[in-house]
Amino acid sequence: TAYSARVTLTASGGDYADETETVTVNVTDNDTAALVIAAADPFKVAEGDSSTFTVRLAARPSGNVTVTLAQPEDSDVTVDTDPDNTGNLNTLDFTNSNWDTAQTVTVSAARDADTTDDGATINLTASGGGYGDATGSVLVRVTENDQTGLTITPAKLTVDEGGSENFTVQLTSRPSESVTITLSQSGAVNTDVRLSKSSLRFTPTNWSTAQTVTVNAAQDDDTTDDTAVISLTASGGDYAGVTGSVPVTVREKPELVLSWKKKTIDENTSVTLKVRLKLKPSDDVRVEVRLPDDAGRMAISPGRELDFSASDDAEYPWNTDQNVAIITYKDPDAVDNKVTISLTASGGGYGEVRDSVELTVTDLYPDGLVLTPSTLEMAEGGSQTFKVKLALQPLDDANVRVTLTQPQNSDVKVDTDPDTGGDQNTLDFTDSNWDEDQIVTVRAAEDADSTDDSASIALATSGDDYQGVTGSVTVSVKDDDVGLQVSTTSLTIAEGGNDTFTVQLASRPSGDVTVTLTQPT
Questions:
Q1: How many Å apart are CA 279 and CA 257, to the nearest integer?
Q2: DSSP assignment, residue 144?
């Protein structure tokens, strides 16, 4: 702004006392109304970060001035003149008193999914106080920090032998087109390590979605930890040549080494199970061998507990087999038994180790009754006998009863003691008479029909040593009632005379019957 001032000059001394003169000074304004912007060109902001620049007026305004900053077209770049308040404010206010005080503008750059640097322009426009024509701009360069790469989680794997673990893979930035990641083992291939997938495919849509790969570690017979390196190689789009790797350690698991897992033996015999530790323990280990509660007549020798020492020089070192004798005895049933014998370790780093073996015990007498014969044929109105004895001797002082069920066909009856009134149906055996035949009598009653009959006699045992043994005898009855009954088998008739005879059926027929008489020849 131009302005003027009057300067008064006054003399003193000599004969110039009180002499005065006035000089008028006119000041012409040569300050330009402009914005002073302190920002680098270009003004760089890292992706996902923010930076600031300052603005002030070049000269004192004639009144209040408002500077407005336009938000850039690129929505990833935002301007805020007051970060302490909510929202992105975009004005700066200057007055005659603060016009030369720099005010701060904050520029923020959002993180995006591409790998390309972004750019934007911030335009500033002033109004009021003689600054109506003042403008300015700031060129913003957003530096990209999204580099092409693979995010692998976790970066390395430890897998227990016989188990599996997962890792995930995703891209660090949106690819320009579909990307294929090939998975393989690098270096010496460990055949005990296998992958669930040989490749992964990412697109510009699913690039940030983690995909899972399962690493399986097979069980082996050695006691050494295995290693492998899984290599990942990308192809396609802007990811060609991008690589990654996952080191894998296969950790040997503390385990029990058993001489067998499944075995079948006969009842009343024994079998030996050998047990040792696979890996050297950190301290002494105790292994408890336990039969199930329903194991029946079985025992373990020398006892239920095996102690292994961590020392190689001990009486029972960790890597030497200890024998467990599993003993079976005759039981009272005729059923094969299957039992699971459990082994549980404790101490020395083996606290979580459990294993089991399955033992099938074949019963000694699956066909425990000897029936002679097992099939009977008889005529209607007749009888037959069959013999019964035990196949094997029962336990000492055992009593075995064989019960015979009367057949459903009421014409067939069973009697184990014809000398006693009624039809008896039991036989008793002991450990002294088990192999002696006992006689069973079967009778077939006369009936009124002309049809052959059949029946089945069921036998079942009970007692200390033969519980649940069964057998059966099949009976066939031949019907003898079919025939014609005539009143006489001969007649004497005088010449010119006559006589009669009668004919009837011997039994009730199953349907109508026609009797045809043939004329004499």
A1: 10
A2: P
Domain 35-143 coded CATH 3.40.50.2300? no
CB distance 407 to 414 below 8 Å: yes
468: left (phi over 0), alpha (psi -120 to 50) or beta: left
| Residues 6+ positions from 162 with CB-CB distance below 8 Å | 217, 218, 219, 253
C-alpha dist (Å) from residue 280 to 209, 226, 259, 356, 360: 43, 17, 18, 21, 32
Who's near 471: CB < 8 A, 6+ residues apart?
367, 369, 371, 374, 458, 459
Task: Round the average pLDDT of the chain to a whole number and report it.
Answer: 87
| pLDDT tens digits for range 237-263 | 889 999 999 999 998 888 899 999 999
Burial class (CB in 10 A: 0-12, 13-18, 19+), 25: exposed
What residues does each domain of the chain span? 35-143, 150-251, 256-362, 369-478
Please tell me if the domain spanning 35-143 has the same topology as the one spanning 150-251.
yes
According to DSSP, the residues that pair with 308 across neighbouring strands are 285
369-478, CATH topology level? Immunoglobulin-like (2.60.40)
* Topology at the third CATH level for domain 150-251: Immunoglobulin-like (2.60.40)
pLDDT band at 199 (very low <50, low <70, confident <90, very high): very high
Instruction: Give CA–CA dist 154/168, Å, rounded.
Output: 7
pLDDT in tens, 268-327: 899 999 999 988 888 999 999 999 988 878 888 877 899 999 998 999 999 999 999 999
Q: What is the CATH number of domain 256-362?
A: 2.60.40.10
Burial of 399 by CB count in 10 Å (0-12 exposed, 13-18 middle, 19+ buried)? middle
CB 151 within 8 A of CB 243: no
Per this entry, what is the length of the chain?
521
pLDDT of residue 297: 81
- Residue 218 clears pLDDT 70, i.e. is over it: yes
How confident is the model at residue 86, as a pLDDT?
A: 87
Could you tell me how far CA 29 lies from the centroid of its own chain? 86
Q: In the Cβ-directed half-sphere of 407, how many Cα atoms lie within 13 Å? A: 22
pLDDT recorded at residue 212? 97
